[in-house]
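Need tokens for this chain, all 438 residues.
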Amino acid sequence: MTSINGYPARPSVRAGEVIQLHIATSALRFHVDFYRWGMTPQHAGHAEWPGRAADPGTFDRDWQWPAYEFPVPPDWRSGVYIAVLSTERTSCTPPMDSREARIMLVVAPAARSDRRILYKIPTFTYQAYNTAGGGSLYSASQVTMLRPGGGVGGPVKGLPDPYDSTSPRQTFAHWDAPFIAWMEENGLESDFCTDLDIHEGRHLNDGYRLLVSAGHDEYWSTDARRNVTAFRDAGGNIANFGANTCWWRVNVAPNGTELSCAKFPPGAPAGTDPDSSYGCPDHWWESEPENALLGVSYRNGGGHWDGHRAPLGFTVADGGHWVFSGTGLRTGGVLGREAALIGYECDGAAYEFDAVGRPRPTGQDGTPKDFEILGIAPLPSDWNFAAREPTTSPRAATLGLYTAVGTVFTAATTDWARLLATDPQVASITRNVITRLS
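Here are the structure tokens for all 438 residues:
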């Protein structure tokens, strides 16, 4: 059987630049067809090269597969492109998601554009769950990004999603692809970047008003967080349509090709669960709580890993807020319960109830005092909960926002993107947030 797979030298490139792809195949010749992701995949380019074989590597070292240079056309629109590798071309559009023979590439605009929205692809998280070469950041402290996978084209750690079994949770196809397709269908144009770009200080200062993230953006570097915080403090807005966000600190090698994460307390015995432990060096919340930027943390929410979960939605705390405009929701109404909007992971803030019974943040966990809890979903006791500081507040997902020069909105659940195409209220809130903050 003819084998073929590959990976990019880096996960993003500007239109008009040359990208290096590393590809190994037992075929004498092979094809690469590039598709831009949107409402439907759009064919954007083709290359044909002589094949060269190479052996798989390990998860922690550059695989050093044969390199091929592809000049990205300067007129390519910014977006997420999937390179489909094949030994024989077909006239059919192939599926974009696959555990082999696929490479994901994020294309930034050739020059500063007039778009107001920048969408961030969480490649650090994709690589953390990538098990190509026999390991991931769940079995080791360091991985290379120079191997197949990292969004598409590689094996993935994790259990299947009972609400959508068509793709693994920790892949581009699962959360980001439907969100991006919905944005395009609704005329919300954006440019695209990766978290490596943000880490390196690229793009955020190019005139964008809104940074968007969706799904599962779990791994953040110190520089990425610092740069996003500076963007907020300069008046930039942030919309986080996901959860478990900025939970682990990831350290990026100077050349941008390796990630490391110290998850376990010193001397921890084998089998220790880092999420339930204290003293983990790269737990963001133990040194610089992510609440200070995002308003929420996974430690005040929780996760449900396998099987169908009890259907939970957000109980609306302020139906008159502009976020709920056009939804028909009133205070006390519930958003998304029938389709289990809350989960598979969700974030929250420590809270208490005011004199009229409305939830408000205590601030003891680092959440800004002016964070407005617009929706709340107390969690059942059978969910998986992470370590947290002592507090009288129960666990709950908390949808809300705050303003500190720039405004930061959080949907506080990974599954927000899953309901976009089927729940008009979720779609209306998303449209309200993106149009107002951009």
